[in-house]
Structures are given as C-alpha cells and as structure tokens.
Amino acid sequence: MRSTAVRRVGLAASAATLALLATACGGSSDDGDKGSDAKNEATSSASAAPAAAKALSVDELEKAALAQADVDNGEVDTKIDGSEDDVTKDEVEADGAACAPLALVQSGAAQGEPAATVKRMWTEEAEKPSDADAMSEEAMLASLDVEKVFVTLATYEDGGAETVLKDTEAALKKCAAGFTTTTAGEKGEITKAVATEAPKGADEAVAMTMTMVAEGKETMPFKAVVARKGSTVVAVGAMNLASAVTGKDFEFPTQILDTQLGKLG
C-alpha cells in the first residue's frame, strides 16, 4: 500500500504488512485527533521584522540545511532536490486558490517565488523487534512507528518570506473544513486543517495538523510548521507510518525543526 500522500514524503511499507495491521487494528481511531483538537489554537509567534532581509544564496542555504551530523537518530537524505520526491509549485493544485498554500505545505513544495530552495528528508530510526516477537501486532506497529519529515528551505527577496507566512495563516483560517488537491497528477483530500500552537525560535511561525484521506477511506494526521527566520522560510512536514495504519495521533518532531532553525542563526 502506497498512498499519494505517503509517496510524497517517501514513506513505504509492504502491502501485506499494512493489510495485516489494518485488519488487526480495526481501522482508524479518532482518539489522538480529539486530543489534538482540544489544544488547537490559531497561534502565530512574534510579529514580522520591520525590514525585509536579503535573500540567501543556494550555497548559503546548503550550508544552513539539515545534515547527518546534526541528528543523533535516523538518516538525513540530502539528495531530494531533483529527485522523484521533489515536488514543485507548478505540480500542485487545490480546489480553491485560498487553499493553495496548505496544498504546497502538504506536498513539500515552496510557496511564492523563492530566490533559492533546498530540501531535506529525515527518517527516524525504526525499532527492531526481537525474532520471537517479529510477527506480533505490537512488534509490527513498533517497527512502523517512525516519522518521515520533509524540510523545505526557501529564501526570498523583497519581503516574500513575510508574505508566505501571511498567506499560510490566511489559508489555515479559510480552509479549516478541508479541500482537495492534485499533486503531480494524483488527487488527494484533506478533510480538515486546524491551527496548533506555533513553536518558538523563529521570527514568526504557523503550525497545523491536517487530516488526510489515505487510500480513499482511512484518515491519517499530517503535521507541519511554516516558520520564518529573516528572509528564509522553513517548512517542516511530518508523517508517521503507524499513524497511516491506525489513524492515531503522533508527536511532531520538534527536535528537527529546532535544529534547522538553529542553523539559520
């Protein structure tokens, strides 16, 4: 089983494993979603800077982007740009222009007209079950309880970074009831999009949880933060493969976002 949304962030699992787990778990659960909704608030951190900063060069973005040496768990893929996972703005459509910023966040594509972009993907290290437990439901779910995180850095001239944050926040308010998307010719559906508490450490930031339809029927959470540091926007989107099976909530990988923001100074 390999849904459109899962493909975009490089998640993959065998059809047999997912089918077995889906049957064992009895489908999706709303428990985690309810917990998230209780804390959801449309929160944006500090106000925009008084003057637009100069855009960084591609080389400067590369130096500031997440690297393997920056993490103590999992693997950082630095070869995203130009690969099959590199979705561009012109490959993404939403059923309304107002929702386009969220569709771009969900697909890992940069918004607006950036002067330069760099992408990374981090895959959390999976828990390896013992030989004795290898085929149990708990062991299989534990092995799938890993996060795939897509990091898009985009730098802008003339206040473009500030505009991205404004457009994202506006889209989150207008498209809370959901929308449909088409990415690289494949259709997808977001059933709802809710704002969550924005993180610290950026000039301004918008955080969200989108509920996605996987394989046409099951729902799964997708979490993202769009943050600005000077002229650069960091968009971090996260999915969890076990959540794709169970529909349950998962923790956003704040350590990846914090590390990336820290490298931008």
Automatic annotation (TrEMBL):
<protein>
    <recommendedName>
        <fullName>Lipoprotein</fullName>
    </recommendedName>
</protein>
<feature type="region of interest" description="Disordered">
    <location>
        <begin position="26"/>
        <end position="52"/>
    </location>
</feature>
<feature type="signal peptide">
    <location>
        <begin position="1"/>
        <end position="24"/>
    </location>
</feature>
<keyword id="KW-0732">Signal</keyword>
<feature type="compositionally biased region" description="Low complexity">
    <location>
        <begin position="42"/>
        <end position="52"/>
    </location>
</feature>
<feature type="compositionally biased region" description="Basic and acidic residues">
    <location>
        <begin position="31"/>
        <end position="40"/>
    </location>
</feature>
